[in-house]
């Protein structure tokens, strides 16, 4: 399952990230925020418009907004 399909408030662990689909500067920013393999995340909110962008995820005590394409590059498993 990818992060963008995770149900709201369901806790999950990132098991893999397809860094090749992301621009290098975007990948660097996500890693700096701690969004990498092994991180525990949950969906806090989704955008209300057609594309459901952005997606707000909770990681640790932070809430971070991600684009849907970034969330689609991350595979997660529920914990």
Automatic annotation (TrEMBL):
InterPro entries: Fe-transptr_FeoA-like, FeoA_core_dom, Transcriptional_repressor_C. One of its GO terms (molecular function) is transition metal ion binding. Keywords: Iron. The keyword Iron applies. Residues 1-78 form the Ferrous iron transporter FeoA-like domain. This is Ferrous iron transport protein A.
């Amino acid at each position: 399952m990818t992060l963008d399909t995770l149900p709201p408030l369901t806790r999950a662990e990132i098991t893999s990230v397809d860094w090749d689909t992301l621009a290098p500067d975007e990948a660097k920013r996500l890693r700096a925020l701690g969004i990498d393999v092994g991180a525990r995340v949950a969906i806090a909110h989704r955008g209300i418009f057609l594309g459901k962008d952005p997606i707000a995820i909770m990681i640790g005590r932070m809430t971070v907004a991600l684009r849907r394409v970034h969330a689609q590059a991350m595979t997660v498993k529920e914990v």
